[in-house]
Amino acid sequence: MALNGAAAHPAGRPAGPVLEMSDVHKAYGEREVVRGVSFSIAPGECYGLLGPNGAGKTTSLRLALGLTEPASGRIRLLGHDVLTDARRARRGVGVVPQMDNLDPDFTVSENLLVYGRYFGESDAAIAGRIPQLLDFAGLAGRGNTRIQELSGGMKRRLTMARALVNDPQVIFMDEPTTGLDPQARHLIWERLKTLVAQGRTLLLTTHFMDEAERLCTRLAIMDEGRIIAEGSPRELIARHIEPDVIEAFGDGAADWARAVASRASRVEVAGETVFCYTADARPLLADLDQSRDFRYLHRPANLEDVFLKLTGRDLRD
């Protein structure tokens, strides 16, 4: 499995894309939740799906795995037509679901052993992988621990280890670090980078823009069931956002923004915070060097700026 090193994943990788979705549609009743989604993922990529709640990300993952039947469109996973051969396709896939679904009646090792049996693996073969999987997940020595004794971060890491029990070529991860503290998030990020370095392919959904910027080779932003932008994080930032951002907040910030609006490319107000987007921050910073009663920060544009520009700042439920 080469989990601790950076060796390439064994042969068996498809010559073409790992996953192709072409003009896929899915509706529940009158509500169309996936509307003509098309994208492809090359072997060895970490591809991200970003979007507000209800954008269609999780449904797209379920469609790609053959767990939900599309109304129309074409899906190929690991060279198999998902509509007719989903079970064979899933044999080469690992899945980290949005919510942990570990069996509380089993120990850490038993959870891995039982899950591995679903792929037709012998107990001896699975048992031989367990020490490496636990070490990879930072759970070495925890094999006999009951699930109830694990912290939230430990459970999430075990769920990730379980997704690797069949030595998959591609791993689907639905919000893998939601609810974790910074230490646990950083550990999972390092593990995901290791998987990509080994040549595995990741499909990741996340609400953390910094996570997407750190991990994703390419990503798509979804909204209302459609892909509205696609590219590398750096390409999307360069394409959609001015390079400099000044955030001003507190009493007087809104009045200042109105006074200098002609010197910024774009100004947005969110609550008590004003965002000034510009290709040249120097005139605005010179003005801010004067005595002001509000705070501000100057930073480069990032993926969150792109996300909010394309999908809006309104709260989604």
Textual characterization of the structure:
This protein has about 325 residues and is of the alpha/beta class. It folds into 2 domains: about 20-235, 3-Layer(aba) Sandwich (Rossmann fold); about 240-300, Alpha-Beta Plaits. Helices cover about 35% and strands about 25% of the residues. It contains 11 helices and 14 strands. The chain has helices at about 55-65, 80-90, 110-115, 125-135, 150-160, 180-195, 210-215, 235-240, 255-260, 280-290, 305-310; strands at about 20-30, 30-40, 45-50, 70-75, 80, 95, 170-175, 200-205, 220-225, 225-230, 245-250, 265-270, 275-280, 295-300. Helix 3 (about 110-115) packs across helix 4 (about 125-135) and helix 8 crosses helix 11. The protein is globular and about 70 Å long. The protein starts with 18 loop residues before the first strand and ends in a 6-residue tail after the last helix.
